[in-house]
Amino acid sequence: MKVLVCDPIHEEGIKILKDAGFDVHIRPDISYEELKQTVGEFEVLVVRSRTKVTREI
Q1: In three state form, how does the secondary structure of 3-54 look?
Q2: What is the distance between the alpha carbons of residues 25 and 37, in angstroms, rounded to a whole number?
Q3: In this predicted model, what pLDDT tens digit does every residue of 34-46 receive, in sequence order?
């Protein structure tokens, strides 16, 4: 399962996801436009407060 991490999270969180077998892609600098174009390639989207998930996403 592919996971896109769009905001900074603790390294331990990344480790937990990877150890669970997830294919983790870390992109804390992804632009809104780039996110719109690539989000469909992932099953999981990890965000905090920086990334806004709108209806378009």
Answers
A1: EEECCCCCHHHHHHHHHCCCEEEECCCCCHHHHHHHHHHCCEEECCCCCCCC
A2: 15
A3: 999 999 999 999 9
Considering only the C-alpha atoms of the chain, give the largest distance between any 2 of them, rounded to a whole number of Å.
Answer: 31
Q: How far apart are CA 52 and CA 55, in angstroms?
A: 10
**Residue 57 carries which side chain, given as an amino acid letter?**
I
pTM: 0.88
Q: Find residue 26's DSSP bridge partners.
A: 5
CB 3 within 8 A of CB 38: no
Please give the Cα distance from 15 to 34 (Å, whole number): 25
**For the chain, domain boundaries:** 2-46
